[in-house]
Amino acid sequence: MKYAFFPGCVLESAAKEDYLATVAVAKKLGIELEELDGWTCCGASHVQDIAPEITLATNARNIALAEEKGLNLLTVCNTCTLMLREAKNELDKNEKEKNEVNKKLAQIGKQYRGTTDITHFLWVLIRDYGLDKLKAKVVKPLTGLRVAEYYGCHILRPQTELGFEDYQMPTSLAELISAIGATPIDFSRKLDCCGFHAVYPAHDSVMQMTGSINKDAATEGADCVVTPCPLCQMQLDMFQKEAKEVVGGGKDMPILHMSQLVGLALGISPDEMGMPKRHLTDTAAVTKFVG
Amino acid sequence: MRQITYHIHRYQQGRAFVQTFKFDYEADRTILWGLQKIKDTQDPTLTFLAACRSAVCGACSVRVNGEAMLGCEAKIDELTERYGTDELTIAPIGNFRVIRDLVVDWEAKVDRLKLVAPWIFLKAEFNEGDKIVRQTPADFKKFVAGTECILCGCCASECNKLTARQDDFLEPYVFTKANRFVLDSRDDAPMAHIQPAFDNGLWKCVHCMNCISRCPKHLKPAVDISNLRKEATKAGLTNSKGVRHAVAFKDDLYKTGRLKEVSMSLKSDGVVDSAKQAFYALRLWKHSKINPFELVVPQKPVNGIDGVRRLMKAAEEVSK
C-alpha cells in the first residue's frame, strides 16, 4: 500500500507534530508514504479568491507530480484535500479547461492526465487499510477515553467535491475512534466550522466559533477533541485561551490530530508525536490513558 | 400501520416549544405534505408558508434534522431512510427571526439584500437607439446560473459566519445576487454591487461551505463570494485583512512554492495589530509552533520553483 504524500504547508511548520504522527502511524501500519518532491501550496482556499487560474494550474502540477509516480495522492489536511479535488474535478469534467492547463504545463515539462485519485489519510485508514486490520494493530486501546469527533468542513462539504460519506451525518471518524478502543461522544458540533480561514478578517466571529466548539465538547463530557484536519487542530488549540474568554469559560480541552490519537493506540510515544511539547493546551488528560 | 413522527419546533406568542405529531405513513410524500396533513387533521394553528409546491417559489424552506431544505421537495421516504428513523425534527430555517412556528421574517433580510442593488443598470446600447445590441449566448451563459436563486434562505440557515455574528456579514444569497449582476455583460455599474458587498463582509466568509451544500438549486454562493473578491481586488478594493492574507499566500507560492507561516500575521494583520499579538506569539514560540528567526532566514524554494513561477505567470496572463 503506497501513496504519493502531499503533507501541505502547515505540516512543515505550526502543525509539524501532525507530520511526525502521520509518518509514524503509516510506518507502523506498513503504509508507504512517498513525499512528492516539489509539491507546492494548494492555495489554502485563499489564492483562488484573487487568482483562480493560478490555483487551478499549480494544483494540476501537484497532481501531475503524483501521476508521474503512478500513485494516488494522499493528504492529511482537509483544505488541501478540497483544493486538490476541486482542481481534479474541474479538469476531469472540462476537456477545454484541461487542454488549456496542459498547454501551460507542457511549457515546464508536465502533463495532467487525470489518472490519480486524491484521498485523505482518514479515508485511507477506513476504505483502503480497513478498520478490522487497524483494530488488530492496537496495542494500547484507549478504553474509557471520551472523544469529541470533529470533522472540519473541507472533508465533508461541498459534498459534490468530496463525497466520501453523508456530509450531514458522517460516521467515519467515530468508527475510527471506536476501532482504537476510545468512545466517540456523538459530538453536537461535529459539523461546525472552527473559523480558521477567516481568523484575520473576522476575528471576533471566529473566536466565538472556536470557543463554542471547545466549550461544548467539555460540556458534553469529552476528554479531548480529535480532528482529521491540522488547520482545525491549530485553530482549536492555538486560539483556545482567547476563544475561551469570548464564550465565557469552559475547561481546558486537549485538541489532537487524528494521527496522534491513532498513534497513541498503536503504541507510539506521545513525545515522538509532539505531545505535549507542541500543544498549547495540555494533553495530559489524554496521554494518561496510555500510561 | 407505519407512523411518521414530526417533532416540530414551534413559536407562538413569545413561547418556544417542541410539539410532537404523528400521522400515518404514505409513500412518495413530501415534508410539506406532512405539515399540511397535521394542520388539516390535528392542529389548525400550526403555521408555515408554502405556495408553488414545485420548488420554485422558495417559501416552504424548513430545517429537517438541522439541515435546511425545501419542504415541498424533501421526500419523507428519502429522509427516513437516510436517518434510519421515522422520527424527524422540523424547525424554522436558522439565522432568521422567527415570526410564528416555521414562518420567518424576510422583511429585514430584504433590506439587507437591497444593499447590493440586486437589479440591472442597463448599458445604453441594450435599450436605446435604432440598433439595439443583443447579448451573446456566451455572455448570457456567464451569469444565467445565478438567476436560479429562489430566495429560499437555505444557504443562510446554516451559514456559520451568520450564526456567529450577522451585523458585519450578509446572507450568502445576497452575494449570489450581487455576483449575478457583476457577471452580466449588460450591466453598466458593477461597482454598485461590488462596493457594498466589500463594505458588508465580503472577506469575512469562513469557507464552511454550508451554503453550497444546502442550496436546493445547486448554486454555489461561496464561489460567488470568491468571484466577487476577485473582482473587488481587481477594482482596487484591497484595504482588508482578507485581501492581504490571500496576497500573502500568492506571494509565498511564487517565491518558494510554499507558505511562510511565521510572517503571515505580519502580512495579514499589519504591523500594529500584529504587535498587539506579541504575547501570543511568545506562547507559540514556547511551544515551537513558530520560530521568529525564520522571519529573517530566507525559505528554501521547492524543487522546480522556476517552473512553478513560469506556470503562475502563464496562468495570470490568461486571466488578464
Automatic annotation (TrEMBL), chain A:
Coiled-coil segments: 77-111
Domain Cysteine-rich per the UniProt entry, residue ranges: 3-85, 148-237
UniProt entry keywords in alphabetical sequence: Coiled coil, Oxidoreductase
One Pfam family per UniProt: CCG
InterPro entries to which the protein is assigned, alphabetical: Cys_rich_dom, HdrB/HdrD_reductase
UniProt keyword Lyase, yes or no: no
The keyword Zinc-finger is annotated on this UniProt entry: no
Designated name of the protein: Heterodisulfide reductase subunit B
Species name: Veillonella rogosae JCM 15642
From TrEMBL, chain B:
Short name of any one Pfam family annotated for the protein: Fer2_3
Domain 4Fe-4S ferredoxin-type: 194-225
GO molecular function terms listed in the Swiss-Prot or TrEMBL record: 2 iron, 2 sulfur cluster binding; 3 iron, 4 sulfur cluster binding; 4 iron, 4 sulfur cluster binding; electron transfer activity; metal ion binding; succinate dehydrogenase (quinone) activity
Keywords tagged on the record: 2Fe-2S, 3Fe-4S, 4Fe-4S, Iron, Iron-sulfur, Metal-binding, Oxidoreductase, Tricarboxylic acid cycle
Superkingdom assignment: Bacteria
Segment forming the signal sequence: none
An individual GO BP term: tricarboxylic acid cycle
Entries under CDD domains matching the protein: fer2 (cd00207)
Annotated metabolic or biological route of this protein: Carbohydrate metabolism; tricarboxylic acid cycle
EC number: 1.3.5.1
Gene3D superfamilies documented for this protein: 3.10.20.30, Alpha-helical ferredoxin (1.10.1060.10)
InterPro entries xrefs: 2Fe-2S_ferredoxin-like_sf (IPR036010), 2Fe-2S_ferredoxin-type (IPR001041), 2Fe2S_fd_BS (IPR006058), 4Fe4S_Fe-S-bd (IPR017896), 4Fe4S_Fe_S_CS (IPR017900), Beta-grasp_dom_sf (IPR012675), Helical_ferredxn (IPR009051), SDH/FRD_Iron-Sulfur (IPR050573)
Cofactor(s) listed in the protein's UniProt record: [2Fe-2S] cluster; [3Fe-4S] cluster; [4Fe-4S] cluster
Family from the record: Belongs to the succinate dehydrogenase/fumarate reductase iron-sulfur protein family.
Name of the protein in question: succinate dehydrogenase
Organism: Veillonella rogosae
